[in-house]
Amino acid sequence: MRFLRSRSLGFRVSDPNSNNNWVCPYLKEGRRCIVTSCRAVVLPRFGGPEVLELRPNVHVPDLKPNQVLVRARAVSINPLDTRMRSGYGRSIFEPLLPLILGRDISGDVAAVGTSVRTLSVGQEVFGALHPTAVRGTYADYAILSEDEVTPKPVSVTHVEASAIPFAALTAWRALKSTARITEGQRVLVVGGGGAVGFTAIQLAVAAGCNVTTTCGSQSVDRALAAGAEQAVDYTAEDAELAIKGKFDAVLDTIGVPETERIGVNFLKRGGHYMTLQGEAASLTDNYGLFIGLPLASTILLKKQIQYRYTRGIEYSWTYMRADSEGLDEIRRLSEAGKLKIPVEKTFPITQVREAHEAKDKKLIPGKVVLELD
């Protein structure tokens, strides 16, 4: 892809593999850099990978004072992306279609809002948007708030960095913000082979905890290499028999009734059980916002009371959220080589449909990243 300066505000980008040119107007005015349109992968309706459209001129909104415009170099595909594309959360997102998918990003700061003080134009950054963001990161330019991005670790590439923040912030919120794990505690990660589970292992090890995990056979060696004391292959062993003792915190990334039963049984009194599979979105999809959200709150409260009084443990649904403290710690651990998420395969952004299809069909078990020119 080559850049041709236009007579107006910026650059016309010509892709030698395409008949289409797209325009990204670009004008520097002090600390401001105005981009009015760019390429983006748009979701006009819910469905399979075929519904995704790479459009050449998608509007870029003006920055708010606390926002940062990031020129994307790499964006990763999360399970939330493929689920949203298929209709997960439709009760919230359907009225807002078309959407731009994507949560993770690594790239360069192209512009900063007037109140931004910690970042500057040209700086390499990485970060992640909140799960409910409507304008995602599958675009040449993405907009994030100042607390959703942080300087990219120098020791990792943009591809490697883009795989980290959303999964790592999800695990960080559960272990550090909710369970408040401390050195010497025992942590059980159910499903340590996925991005969130694998990150949770590394965060707990870095905090000085003793970690046990369940995972598939292909992930056992990697979990042990990351510092887990025990990695149980759930396809070959009975986890309830193989795992010994009680734990201070259980993070269940699978979230089915069986893993919840096992996780709860392994907790000490005063411990925390946290699952990624909260029912809020599915219930609102089934019953609408006005019935689904209160129903989800009722179910959550009932379980919290039940477990607190029958077992003396805390129960919670956990979700990713922007957290500048967590993102800074993730950056420091990544820089030190103590936190990484291996990338299985990369695709150019022009092959986003193929990438989503590969994830849907489970052809690629690990992390997939979309690269932008």
Describe it.
- By secondary structure, this protein is an alpha/beta fold.
- The chain folds into 2 domains: 37-166 and 324-371, Alpha-Beta Complex (Quinone Oxidoreductase, Chain A, domain 1), CATH 3.90.180.10; 168-317, NAD(P)-binding Rossmann-like Domain (Rossmann fold, 3-Layer(aba) Sandwich), CATH 3.40.50.720.
- The chain is built from 12 helices and 21 strands.
- The protein has helices at residues 79-86, 90-93, 158-162, 165-178, 195-206, 220-225, 239-242, 257-265, 280-287, 289-310, 324-335, 352-360, and strands at 2-5, 11-14, 21-24, 26-29, 32-35, 37-43, 53-59, 67-77, 99-100, 104-112, 124-128, 141-145, 149-151, 186-190, 210-215, 230-233, 247-252, 267-275, 314-317, 343-348, 367-371.
- The strands form 5 sheets. Strands 8, 10, 11, 12, 13, 20 and 21 form a 7-stranded mixed sheet that branches. Strands 16-15-14-17-18-19 form a 6-stranded parallel sheet, with helices on both faces. The protein has a 3-stranded antiparallel sheet with strand order 1-2-3, with no helix packed on it.
- Helix 12 (352-360) links the parallel strand 20 and strand 21.
- The chain starts with a strand and ends with a strand.
- It comes from Trema orientale (Charcoal tree).
- Residues 47-370 form the Enoyl reductase (ER) domain.
- This is Alcohol dehydrogenase superfamily, zinc-type.
